[in-house]
Write a structure and sequence with these properties.
The complex is a heterodimer of chains A (421) and B (74). With 421 residues, chain A is mostly beta strands. Chain A has 2 domains: 288 residues, Beta Barrel (Porin); 42 residues, no CATH class. Chain A is 4% helix and 59% strand. Chain A contains 1 helix and 22 strands. In chain A, the strands form 3 sheets. A 16-stranded antiparallel β-barrel of chain A has the order 1-2-3-4-5-6-7-12-13-16-17-18-19-20-21-22. In chain A, strands 8-9-10-11 form a 4-stranded antiparallel β-sheet, with no helix packed on it. In chain A, a hairpin with a 5-residue loop joins strand 8 and strand 9. The longest helix of chain B is centred in the first third of the chain and has 13 residues. Chain B is flat, with a radius of gyration of 17 Å. The chains are: A mainly beta (421), B mainly alpha (74). Chains A and B meet through strand 1, strand 2, strand 5, strand 6 and strand 7 of A and helix 1 and helix 2 of B.
């Protein structure tokens, strides 16, 4: 009886002890984290092209182009009091190109062949703890004959831990400077209005005359521009299939309006008369693409991409791309890739001296012609855990590709991507 | 010239077959799916390749790149 009582008392004491601990109060107060620079990315490419169907000379001229493109991205990340992640990405792009055909905007070949484009951009994305996000972006681009302002809104929703839906709506509001081939610039004319009076110079500049009496004040306006607007709605759906396979489907609907050609592109009629290309003022494009990535074995990845494209200018096309990265080690991989592309000709395309004055719309730009292309090359990706040579250079990608087109155009491109953390 | 090979139809069929066989994958099973080579988008290093393809071909879009506008290209 005594043993039983002692046992019961002992058990009771143990039971009390089990519930005697006070739960430790959480004294950690969540603090927001200010924006900090998390990543710097520099992408540079060298591009060289040759061909003999330049649109500047009506589909028969030299298409030699050299382009050096550079893009610098700075990514800032921070968290607010509501545990939302804020990501601000600032970008600056700088391209410099030389184009042999640009010399023949002037009939004598005296025009400039070099040009530079600068294009900054800004994106702000907010992501909650569930992984859903939305954001806004702005973009500006300027080069001698073209200016562009772009805006976009995008959002992403996790449908489950294995599926994600994204959408993006964007608009570009562009101005095309109306630089005509030298022989096609409007001749000097005098337009008399009540006030003021304007006339057009042989170089295409519009000059206004103001004042009156025995003297005039002159004010030279810039070369006029025409607007071009592009609106795009994009939707994509990504799905994990199993532990080695995932896929996505993407659909864009693109509507363009305004001046959709380029004013320095010539077209030669059958009788030898040259005119500026004339394309419709609207265009609707619908591309649909799909990706399928598979992790084969322990060291090989199969990346594939397919796209079907259709527009109301008569072009339909198909694209198929395959890339095989092979992991030499967990942080070093090499890859080979191949891309095949085929398209039908636009209703408005015609080769040199095939159009007539009876045609409403006409172009000899070979990017609108029937063509097939092959693009193949190799690349490598290096991303050691402590950085390359223990530096802030976190990852390096190098990629080379050779491109050939059935229109006798060929090109080579070499690209580098430096990522610093 | 008619398209000889329905490339997109082949690709679409593969994708549809894949989607129909989805299984639930837990977070700790995603080590291969989270690999840098498995990302369902173009690599950053491909950015300028996508641009020149837009300039030299009639099609664009559905790949995260340009769809039109923003530059003096079609």
């Amino acid at each position: 009886m005594k043993k039983l009582s002692l046992t019961v008392i002992g058990l009771y004491v143990l039971l009390l002890h089990a519930f005697s601990q006070n739960a430790a109060q959480d004294t950690v107060i969540y603090k927001s984290k200010p924006l900090a620079l998390e990543e710097i990315s520099l992408v540079s490419s060298y591009y060289s092209q040759d061909g003999n169907h330049s649109a500047v000379t009506g589909g028969i001229g030299d298409e030699h182009v050299v382009d050096l493109s550079n893009g610098l991205d700075l990514k800032f990340v921070g968290w607010d009091q509501s545990h939302n992640k804020h990501t601000i990405t600032t970008s600056m792009g700088f391209d410099h190109h030389t184009s042999a055909s640009s010399a023949y905007v002037s009939q004598t070949g005296a025009s400039k062949t070099a040009g530079t484009r600068v294009y900054p951009a800004l994106d702000w994305t907010i992501e909650n703890e569930k992984g859903n996000s939305f954001g806004f972006g702005g973009y500006y681009s300027t080069e001698y004959n073209y200016q562009s302002v772009g805006l976009d809104f995008h959002f992403t929703k996790k449908l489950s831990t294995n599926a994600e839906l994204s959408a993006k709506f964007s608009g570009f509001f562009d101005k095309v400077k109306m630089i005509y081939p030298s022989e096609l610039i409007p001749k000097s004319t005098v337009i008399v209005s009540t006030s003021p009076t304007y006339y057009t110079t042989a170089s295409g500049r519009r000059v206004s005359l103001s004042g009156g009496g025995s003297s005039y004040n002159t004010h030279e306006d810039a070369i006029p521009s025409s607007p071009r607007n592009t609106f795009t709605g994009s939707v994509s759906y990504a799905q994990i299939i199993n532990t080695r396979l995932q896929a996505s489907v993407m659909l864009d609907v693109v509507s363009q309006s305004g001046y959709l050609g380029l004013p320095f592109h010539r077209v030669y009629y059958k009788d030898g008369t040259d005119v500026v290309e004339n394309l419709p003022s609207t265009r609707l494009k619908i591309p649909i693409g799909a990706r399928l990535n598979y992790f084969l074995g322990d060291n090989v990845v199969v990346r594939s991409y397919f796209r079907y494209y259709q527009d109301d200018w008569g072009i339909s096309s198909q694209t198929a791309e395959l890339e095989i990265p092979i992991k030499i080690s967990p942080f070093f991989s090499v890859s080979g890739f191949y891309r095949y592309y085929t398209q039908t000709a636009s209703t408005y395309f015609g080769a040199y001296k095939t159009h007539t004055a009876a045609d409403t719309y006409y172009s000899s730009n070979y990017s609108l012609s029937e063509l097939t292309s092959n693009f193949m090359g190799a690349g490598m990706h290096i991303a050691p855990p402590k950085g390359i040579f223990d530096s802030h250079l976190n990852a390096l990608d190098i990629r080379y590709g050779h491109y050939t087109q059935s229109t006798d155009l060929s090109s080579n491109v070499l690209s580098f991507d430096f990522t610093f953390k | 010239m008619k398209q000889k090979f329905p490339l997109f139809l082949t690709g679409a069929a593969l994708i549809l077959c894949a989607f129909s066989s989805c299984v639930q994958v837990k977070e700790y099973q995603k080590n291969r799916l989270n690999d840098a080579d498995m990302v369902l988008s173009s690599r950053k290093v491909q950015k300028n390749e996508l641009n020149f393809q837009t300039y030299r071909e009639g099609a664009s879009g559905a790949n995260g790149g340009k769809t039109g506008g923003g530059c003096g290209c079609n």
